[in-house]
Amino acid sequence: MSSTIRLGTTTYSFNDEYHSYDLSLESMFETIGSLSPKQGLEIIAPQCIRTYPEVSEEFERRFHYAVERYDLVPSAFGHYSDLGRISGRDLSIDEAVEFSRIQLEGAKRLGYSLARMSYQSFDLTDRREALYRQLLPDLERLELKLAIEIHAPNIIESEQQQRVIEDVAELNSPYVGFTIDCGCMTRRVSPVCERKFLELGVDPAIVKRVIDFWATEPSLAELRAEIEAIDGGSLVELLATETWIYFGHGKPAALRAIMPYVFHVHGKFFRVDENGNDDAVAYPEIIDILVSSGYDGWISSEYEGHHWLKNRGAYAQVQAHQRYLRRLISESEASKSATATE
Amino acid sequence: MFDEDLIAGQRLTRSTRGGNRFLSFKIRLPWYRSIYLSCFDRIELSMNGRPQAEARIFFKLYGTTYRFNELTKHYSVLWFVLDPAELLVQHDSNLPSDRCEIALTLFFRIPYHRHVFRQVSTCTRALQLEERIAL
Predict the structure, then answer these.
(1) Which residue of B has its CA nearest to A308?
(2) Closest-CA residue of chain B to A117
(3) Does A218 touch chain B (CB under 8 A)?
(4) Residues A182 and A117 in one domain
């Protein structure tokens, strides 16, 4: 594999094992390290750091020890703006900047050169006040990249997202770009989600109706109208809402135009099947674009099947996902070499 | 996300404090990451089918006890995702002496979703009453 794409995973993949105390913080790091040498380690800051948003000296010491011992490479620091932390109002710009600055300084001490900024971290009513613009002096001082996440139900093509993309392009800073979460480019609702609701007793005909309706790419208003029309109770409402939240309708082709600003990739997935293929996300097309664009950042495999499937099988799934990604990368490279020699 | 873990353990503890009687049990944060107490703005709790008034529910974390209906003030207190908390319910009537069916629904804001989504977590479990402990 000659591609410079690097593979890693995020602690989010191990939510179930961590929450249930099957894995401690250190054993989670050890597990991630066992996936391969130089495995990329992305952490969710408020999941791992007890003193969040601060990074304590104790955490810093434990983290560096784990990175060294388990042969990990810090890939992305999972930053959150938590603008809705205070009840009844959003954080002010000054409060938001300070809350982020604390995390970014902590990320740097941990050895990260990139922080993921969670989506809905700002609005663009006034571009000058966008949090990423306000943080630019800190990013330059720390030499830290901020990668704003594009995440379902948002998609690259949406009007709101396009405004942010335009603004980031205009800013033209090596320190402000995007994390693309592959869950915003899905081909179908994951069978893991579908099966869960069938097991909960939802009528198979209604499950099919909801999933077929998802395929029509409805707006939120249309989805709500359909939920009302079905009148199937809270589980049906939950199913419909989850299809809308988790499975984005974005087309991989839209990714190509923003590649100059893509700093990081979340390899969101819900299941790798028995044949070693992801069955929901448009990975073949996505990987093709990443390879042909010369992307040289990380793909953090982000397992989210645990939202529906509580079998604590994250390790095997992440391992299978990385095997799948390596295969796609190799195939894409081979295809490009063949085209070049024709 | 982790509804089945919302009620932690199997025990319901009776205690008295300042002449008031309480029943308490442990709960877990049913979410993948830590969040601030200010995000918790509503609770529904019934014991053996009897709804309990929010004003009589207290939340204990790291040695401090809060009225549940005042949690929204505490935006600097982070509930770390791995740490159990305790719910205390003030009660006047006599409850069954051995087991009690608890039905709990916790509503919370997702701090980074701002005003778009709320999380609702529900769990029902029969808990075994423990011996009374005098505080």
Answers:
(1) B1
(2) B112
(3) no
(4) yes
Contact between A85 and B36 using a beta-carbon 8 Å cutoff:
yes
CB contact under 8 A, B75 and A86: yes
Tokens found for residue A21: 């105390």
The type of residue at A25 is L
A240 and A332 part of one domain: no
Q: Determine, yes or no, domain membership for A1.
A: no
**Residue type for A246, please?**
Y
Q: Which domain holds residue B119?
A: 3-134
- Overall number of domains in chain B: 1
* Each residue's pLDDT tens digit, B31-87: 999 999 999 999 999 999 999 999 999 999 999 999 999 999 999 999 999 999 999
Closest Cα in chain A, distance from residue B7 (Å):
13
ipTM (interface predicted TM): 0.92
Of A238, A12, A78, residue with least CA distance to B117: A238
Cβ neighbours of residue B60 closer than 8 Å, sequence gap 6 or more: B24, B66, B85, B86, B87, B88
Subunit contact B32:A12, Cβ cutoff 8 A: yes
Asked whether residue A174 is assigned to any structural domain, the reply reads yes
Among A131, A165, A133, CA closest to A250: A165
